[in-house]
Specification:
The complex is a heterotrimer of chains A (106), B (503) and C (509).
Chain A lengths: L12 H10 L6 H18 L2 H4 L17 E2 L9 H5 L5 E2 L2 E5 L7
Antiparallel strand pairs in A: 2-3
Helix pairs in contact in A: 1-2
Chain B lengths: L8 H9 L5 H19 L2 E4 L1 H16 L12 E4 L26 H8 L4 E5 L33 H8 L5 E6 L5 H7 L2 E4 L19 E6 L2 H11 L17 H7 L6 E5 L9 H16 L3 E5 L7 H16 L22 H12 L2 H14 L5 H24 L2 E5 L15 H5 L6 H6 L3 E9 L4 E8 L5 H19 L15
Parallel strand pairs in B: 2-3, 2-4, 7-8, 7-9
Antiparallel strand pairs in B: 1-3, 4-6, 5-6, 5-10, 9-11, 10-11
Helix pairs in contact in B: 2-3, 7-8, 7-16, 8-16, 10-12, 10-13
Chain C lengths: L8 H7 L1 E11 L36 E2 H13 L3 E2 L6 E4 L9 E4 L6 E10 L2 E14 L3 E5 L11 E5 L6 E7 L9 H19 L11 E10 L10 E6 L2 H20 L8 E5 L4 E4 L12 E2 L10 H9 L5 H12 L3 H9 L3 H9 L4 H9 L1 H9 L10 H12 L5 H12 L5 H7 L8 H14 L1 H8 L6 H11 L6 H12 L12
Parallel strand pairs in C: 12-13
Antiparallel strand pairs in C: 1-10, 1-11, 3-6, 4-5, 4-15, 6-7, 7-10, 8-9, 11-12, 13-14
The chains are: A mainly alpha (106), B alpha/beta (503), C alpha+beta (509).
């Protein structure tokens, strides 16, 4: 996706389809149709942040100024395997059974 | 029995402590009330009668045995369905989690259990806490007890409605951009968003990790303080938890003194776009505070005008990542694909998320994916994080001049179902006054401020305090509540229409 | 590409200059996981070491393992990195069934350690490898692929996922492009991984068992026409599970890429998979688009700001590197660079160290190990360390000399005895009656006889040619059958023949 389009926040249907792919949501054609304009309206509203977000303003990623929050390297009780698997759509050999993964290697 | 449901949690606590009534009776009364009115209100997604009664009985046994119990032991509570409750279905208002039963308790829930509060059930909400009306629940909306044709606010409409309809004396909600406070305002109840980090997020299904907080939903300020003291405090299971004791909240309520307190009215919150009746009630409260000895000035927080925009970039971004785990592999819904005999994991993921997520969730996930994507990060997410800094600075500057800030909680009273569904931005604007507090991490309370004359519906006043000064919310809230209740001759909720038990 | 049509390695190196990049993932040996208290032991029953956090259940939150941070810092320090003043975790967002949250909690533009280097020795030559970064991340679960022919993902019907491994702390170490290795590229790659392994063992942060996956290597290879040309397109090869594989995979990729380029094609930037059995790499699944990971700072974890005092404390815990050790020994022994190299070259560094520890002076330790003992080792075709003479015994022999009980010549006899297994130095000295004659009268008489027997030599000594006394000393030693202290004999000769002039050579002796 080209990186110089931020100043044209209107999202095209194709862009929405691409984003849906990244987000693993199989949007229907009808959804693609009505989402794009809705998102564009929202983006119009929110693009305002650029107006005040000057170069010299630091970003806040955490509202609290916490640092160095650690825990000791100690073992704590786990879930029993049957509880871990209890909500699983499919279980086999005490593992989560998932459909075939397209995966990394051809 | 019906009288028991009209009592506040503080009153119930007193009677339980004095042995005048048992938790079993109290819990049973509330379960009956739920049975009577919830078909119309639909505040609850799941009622755990057996679990609640078992807890009630245990508490009664311990009390009879002479044990000293925590103050709220035996007082029933409802929990927003966004919090993990072991053994009780947790859906977050979403179809994708239909039937999911967590194998663990959220820390907040564990604290409720440890304090002996029977958990009545899980309350309705906008799906994954995204919304301002509870219309985005996959399980149907909750109805405002003041007018069943209107929304109860959102995302925590279920908790607020449950408390407003006397189905529970206490409820726990979560607030990411106003989801406790705004429902409080439109249902005539009290809602508190604690300081970020003041209440554990462990077990709270994340919407926006840097904005979410759990907090009390009640009918009175004292009840909220009591509940806040049960659920709040440091949790080592939450890395964003504040390792500091809570300030004395119940004490602040009992003090109820604002002499010499400096109160700031935020210029940017409450002008045009706010309903006339909302503004009128707010002005009255400000005058009351003045009468009670507070000094009132106007303050300007200029970047609050950008809070809405920053929020609707930060929230979807974090949410798009937080909701990625719902992929049909380990829990929750898994769908097959029409006409595809042997779908891949990727196909199953995409089809399930399509089927299991509602429109608003999809909207925000796509928006968030976009805001984080390569080439757009700096312009959108990055810029929003800068605005966040500016808003924190606005608060810091304001709190040098004043001790608390006040504003109307929400721009309008409860609107009708469907009124804002087609216009997402119009819906989002319900949160315009509550959002700044979440961005900065400061605490806020909504307290009923009266009915708007144009529609006879509840309005709320919001009080904001510096981070970790939650006691100031309770102090001011208690004063406002006391003065208004005196003026009204009774709590605002007394004027709500009586709900007829459903057939 | 079929193996048969590949250019040979030599041809590839004639035409191209290989550039390497190595990414190594280290599984830390903490007892609990990165973000939760689940145990990390290998080999447990599937999904028996999981909890809401590492399963990514809705509502779960991470809490950072302090020991993992400590290990990360120590690894960074051992690689001469700068430790970040402040850094954060970031979410790397992508979907994969072995990732419970469908994002990996990792570090993106703020690694905990960066800009380091390490040195690897290959064939006596030292290669400096620049380390771009070392950062913290969490491991994924493990999948079993069911129903395919080979148990691998391709052609599998479905997969079974075990999340025991999910959340185990990983440190990823990334090199900068490694240039200038030429034909030794595969060997250098292997040596680097082996060196890293030793470092990690010495740090005691991981059990670094490649076959168990606690040390994983991805090899990046690219070719360019010459060392001054810009970098070529690189491929990344995964599934390199042993040191041997590292070397073989790099070698193969060089040949493969050279063949592609030689045929006029271009190298595709892709991830490839190494097959140890067939000795080739195959391409990964081609993706329609490059994955956009949408990194952003992890809001659920607080930033890490290791204070300087803590970092220094951790620096103290580092094992000494080879260079530091060398420098320390050299300074302590007062040896020149040449002397140090001689000792190391003879394979005697540790032996000399131990001999000194047993009480000998550095000079004495060096003398014996580099002369007599080195010679004997050579004769027997073994390393000096393999001789049946211990550093302690060498120190004992020297002690006997220092006490005046034996001389150097006798010492050699003692060594013969030690090598023959005749007992301790003391026992051998006694058994063979090795004792230095210290009777002054007898010595004096022997000196007089030698002077008388060699008047011309004596005259030279009188004239100031001090060195000529050596012949007289030899004569005395011969008469005494080696059982005299040569230094004392020299003194006696001098006292009879030499008038000490202030400022002369003798005066300074």
């Amino acid at each position: 996706m080209p990186a110089d389009h931020w100043d044209a926040p209107a999202l095209t249907r194709d862009q929405v389809a691409y984003l849906a792919g990244l987000a693993r949501i199989d949007l229907t054609p009808a959804e693609l149709d009505h989402l794009a304009p809705q998102l564009a309206v929202i983006l119009d509203a929110v693009a305002r942040v650029r107006e005040v977000a000057g170069e010299d303003v630091p970003l806040t990623s955490h509202p609290l100024p916490l640092r160095n929050v650690f825990r000791a390297d100690e073992v704590r009780p786990c879930l029993p395997a049957d509880e871990a698997l209890a909500g699983a759509p499919a279980v086999e050999q005490q593992r989560f059974s998932v459909p075939r993964i397209l995966g990394e290697e051809a | 029995m019906a009288n028991l449901t009209r009592l506040t949690a503080a009153e119930l606590s007193k009677r339980l402590g004095a042995g005048e009534v048992s938790s079993t009776e109290v819990t049973e009364a509330h379960l009956e009330r739920i049975g009577a009115v919830d078909p119309a209100v639909h505040a609850f997604l799941h009622v755990d009668a057996d679990g609640a009664m078992a807890t009630a009985r245990r508490v009664d046994d311990r009390r009879v045995a002479g044990e000293t119990l925590p103050p709220l032991a035996g007082v029933p509570v409802a929990v927003k369905d966004v919090m993990a409750t072991r053994g009780i279905p947790t859906t977050c208002g979403s179809a994708i989690l239909a039937g999911w039963v967590p194998p663990y308790d959220a820390t907040v829930v564990a604290r409720l259990r440890a304090a002996g509060l029977p958990i009545l059930g899980k309350t309705n909400m906008d799906e994954f806490a995204m919304g301002s009306s509870t219309e985005h629940s996959a399980y149907g909306p909750t109805h405002n007890p003041w007018d069943l044709g209107r929304i109860p606010g959102g995302s925590g409409g279920g908790s607020a409605a449950a408390v407003a309809a006397y189905e529970a004396p206490l409820a726990v909600g979560t607030d990411t951009g106003g989801s406790i406070r705004q429902p409080g305002a439109v249902t005539g109840t009290v809602g508190v968003k604690p300081t970020y980090g003041g209440v554990s997020r462990y077990g709270l299904v994340a919407l926006a990790s840097s904005l979410d907080q759990a907090g009390p939903v009640t009918r009175t300020v004292l009840d909220a303080a009591m509940l806040h003291e049960v659920i709040g405090g440091y949790d080592p299971m939450d890395s964003t938890s504040l390792d500091a004791p809570l300030p004395p909240l119940v004490e602040a309520v009992r003090d109820a003194d604002v002499t010499g307190l400096r109160v700031g009215v935020v210029r940017e919150l409450g002008g045009d776009g706010y309903q006339a009746g909302v503004r009128a009630r707010f002005d009255e409260v400000v005058a009351l505070l003045s009468d009670a000895g507070a000094t009132v000035v106007e303050v300007s927080c200029p970047h609050f005008d950008y809070a809405f925009a920053a929020y609707y970039l930060i929230l979807p971004s974090e949410a798009s990542s937080n909701l990625a785990r719902f992929d049909a592999m380990r829990y929750g819904m898994r769908v097959g694909l029409d006409g595809v005999a042997d779908p891949s994991a990727e196909q199953v993921m995409a089809a399930t998320r399509e089927a299991g997520f509602g429109d608003e969730v999809k909207r925000r996930i796509i928006l968030g994916t976009y805001a984080l994507s390569s080439g757009y990060y700096d312009a959108y997410y990055g810029s929003a994080q800068k605005v966040r800094t500016l808003i924190q600075r606005d608060f810091a500057a304001a709190f040098e001049q004043v001790d608390v800030l006040v504003s109307p909680t929400a721009p309008t009273t409860a609107f009708r179902f469907g009124q804002k569904l087609d216009d997402p931005v119009a819906m989002y604007l319900s949160d315009v006054a509550t959002i700044p507090a979440n961005l900065a991490g400061v605490p806020g309370i909504s307290v009923p401020s009266g009915l708007a004359e144009e529609d006879g519906l509840p309005t709320g006043v919001q009080v904001l305090a510096p981070a970790q000064a939650d006691d100031r919310l309770y102090r001011v809230g208690a004063v406002v509540e006391a003065m208004l209740v005196e003026r009204w001759g009774g709590p605002l909720l007394d004027r709500a229409p009586q709900l007829e038990p459903s057939a | 590409m079929r193996v048969a049509s590949l250019v040979s390695y030599e041809q590839a190196l004639e035409r191209y200059d290989p550039v390497l990049g190595l990414e190594v993932h280290v599984e830390l040996d903490t007892v609990s996981k990165m973000f939760c208290g689940c145990p990390t032991g290998f080999g447990a029953a599937p999904n028996a070491q999981v909890c809401p956090v590492c399963l990514g259940l809705p509502g779960a939150l991470p809490v950072l393992n302090e020991r993992a941070v400590e290990s990360a810092i120590r690894i960074g320090l051992a690689l001469n990195c700068t430790v970040a003043v402040e850094c954060r975790f970031a979410r790397k967002n992508y979907f994969y069934p072995d990732m419970p949250k469908n994002f990996q909690t990792s570090q993106y533009d703020e690694p905990i350690a960066f800009d380091g280097w390490t040195e690897v020795e290959v064939d006596g030559r030292s290669y400096r490898i620049e380390i771009e970064r070392a950062h913290m991340e969490e491991d994924t679960g493990k999948s079993l692929h069911v129903g395919g022919a080979t148990g691998r993902i391709h052609g599998a019907h479905h997969s079974l996922v075990d999340y025991n491994r999910a959340g185990i702390p990983l440190i990823e170490i990334v090199t900068r492009p490694i240039v200038g290795t030429g034909a030794l590229a595969p060997v250098v790659a292997r040596a680097y991984v082996a060196h890293l392994r030793e470092l990690l063992v010495a740090l005691a942060v991981s059990d670094v068992r490649m076959e168990q996956g606690s040390l994983r290597c991805d090899a990046n290879v690219s070719l360019r026409p010459g060392p001054d040309a810009p970098l070529g397109t690189r491929t990344e090869t995964k599934n390199v599970n042993s040191l041997r594989s590292v070397e073989r995979a790099v070698r193969y990729e060089i040949c493969r890429q050279a063949s592609v380029l030689g045929d006029g094609g271009t190298v595709t930037q892709e991830t490839r998979h190494w097959h140890e059995d067939t000795g080739i790499t195959t391409p990964g699944r081609s993706k329609e688009q490059a994955e956009d990971y949408r990194y952003f700072p992890e809001p659920d974890l607080a930033p890490i700001a290791p204070d300087a005092a803590w970092v220094e404390e951790l620096r103290e815990t580092l094992p000494e590197g080879p260079r530091e050790r060398w420098a320390r020994l050299q300074a302590g022994w007062g040896f020149s660079d040449l002397e140090m190299r001689d000792v190391a070259g003879a394979g005697a560094l540790v032996l000399v160290e131990q001999t000194i520890a047993a009480g000998a002076t550095p000079a004495a330790a060096k003398k014996w190990w580099l002369s007599d003992l080195a010679r004997r080792a050579n004769e027997q075709g073994v390393e000096p360390a393999a001789l049946p003479v211990s550093p302690k015994q060498v120190a004992q022999v020297q002690a006997l000399i220092d006490a005046g009980r034996i001389n150097d010549k006798m010492a050699r006899t003692v060594f013969d005895g030690l090598l023959a297994g005749e007992g301790t130095p003391e026992e051998i000295v006694v058994a063979q009656g090795l004792v230095v004659v210290s009777d002054e009268t007898a010595l004096g008489a022997a000196v007089d006889r030698a002077i008388e027997a060699h008047p011309d030599v004596a005259a030279k000594v009188r004239d100031g040619k001090v060195a000529a006394a050596g012949a007289l000393i030899g004569a005395v030693m011969k008469e005494m059958r080696g059982q005299a202290d040569a230094a004392r004999v020299r003194e006696l000769i001098n006292s009879r023949l030499v008038t000490v002039t202030p400022g002369s050579d003798l005066a300074s002796q």
